[in-house]
């Protein structure tokens, strides 16, 4: 298992970065107001150089509402990607971004990883995660 401890300067091994460039879907875990986990499948992009993960979503989705209800400082979340015996988890603080240029950039990154542009959606927002911990096995 590879692991890094929380750090502002996240040093991501190339094998882990490469795994997050492969075309896989992931799960995102947020917490409901009562503290129980809400786990949903998502498409995610990860930029190791800035330790930023991005998930585009609908403004009214439960995951977005969970993060928004956490307030200005955001919410700790986990993204997990699995491929057979290989897996990786990215942890960090998520916040909601609504700026059109930021959302458009996230859509472009999505298209690069998944080979298609997300359908137009005026309710689209970005869940931006400042990753501060990684772990994984088999990568």
Automatic annotation (TrEMBL):
The keyword Amino-acid biosynthesis does not apply. The keyword Oxidoreductase applies. It holds the Pfam family PNPOx_N. Residues 13-133 form the Pyridoxamine 5'-phosphate oxidase N-terminal domain. Keywords: Oxidoreductase. PANTHER family: F420H(2)-DEPENDENT BILIVERDIN REDUCTASE, HEME OXYGENASE HI_0854-RELATED. This is Pyridoxamine 5'-phosphate oxidase family protein. The lineage of its organism: Bacteria, Bacillati, Actinomycetota, Actinomycetes, Kitasatosporales.
